[in-house]
Amino acid sequence: MSSNLDRIGYDRRLQTHWLNRIIALLIDSVLLGVIVGIVAAFVTLPALFGVPLILVGAPLIFGTLSIFYFVLMESVYGATVGKRIMGLRVVTLQGKNPNVERAFIRNVSKIYWALLLIDLLIGLGTQGDPNQKFSDRIAGTTVISERIVIQIPEPKPTAGFESRFCPMCGLQLPRDALYCTRCGAKQ
Q1: Is residue 43 one of the residues assigned to a domain?
Q2: What's the domain count of the chain?
C-alpha cells in the first residue's frame, strides 16, 4: 500500500500544493521573526548584556507569537499573510473558515519546528488526504488553492444516494463537502 509520501514523488499538483505551503510558511516566519526581533530587543535592552535572556526568551516568544498569529489570521480571515500571497486558504471540510478551536488544533505543532516536521511527516506518511498535515485531519481542516478554480458540473444525484464523487480524483465524498479531502478541488 503506497503512502502520500510516494504520491508526492510523481503528482505535480501535490508537489505544487506543498511547495506553495512551504513558501507561505517561510513568508510568515520572516514576518514573525521581524516582530519577535523587535519585541526581544525591547525585553533585553534594560538588561544590557542580556544575551542569555534573548537566547532562551526568543524561541519562547517566537513560538507563542506564532500560535497566536496563525490562529487569529486563519480563524478570522481564513489565511495568513503568507497564504494570501501564495493564493492559499484554510477551510473546514464544509468550506468555512476554521473556528478558533480548529485553528489552534491545526497550528499547535508550529510552536516548535521539530513538532511541525513530525506533524507533516505523519500526515504525508499515512493514508488520507495528501493535502493535510496530521493536525489538519484532527481539526477537520484542509488548505486549498484559490488560484485554480475549475468548474465541473456536478453529476445529477440518484434517489437515496447520500454521497458523491470528486470529479477531479474520484474520491467518494459526503454530500455537504465543499472541498475534496484528497485533492482539495472545490466541489
Answers
A1: yes
A2: 1
Q: Is the pLDDT of residue 177 over 60?
A: yes
Residue 147: closest CA among 176, 185, 182, 110: 185
- Whole domain around residue 104: which residue ranges? 4-148
Residue 165 included in any domain: no
Confidence of residue 116 (pLDDT cuts 50, 70, 90): very high
Q: Is residue 131 part of a domain?
A: yes
- 34 Cβ contact list (under 8 Å, min separation 6): none
In a domain, 185, yes or no: no
CA separation for the pair 134, 165 (Å, rounded): 23
Instruction: Read off the pLDDT band of 150 (50, 70, 90).
Output: very low
The band of 142, judged by pLDDT with boundaries at 50, 70 and 90, is: very high
Q: Residues, the chain, total?
A: 187
- Residue 22: name the closest of 93, 86, 69, 73 by CA: 86
Beta bridge pairs of residue 89:
144
Helices 100-107/51-76 angle, 10° precision? 130
Residue type, 158: T
pLDDT for the residue numbered 174: 82
Q: Which residue has the cell 467518494?
A: 172
Q: Tell which wins on pLDDT, 172 or 110.
A: 110
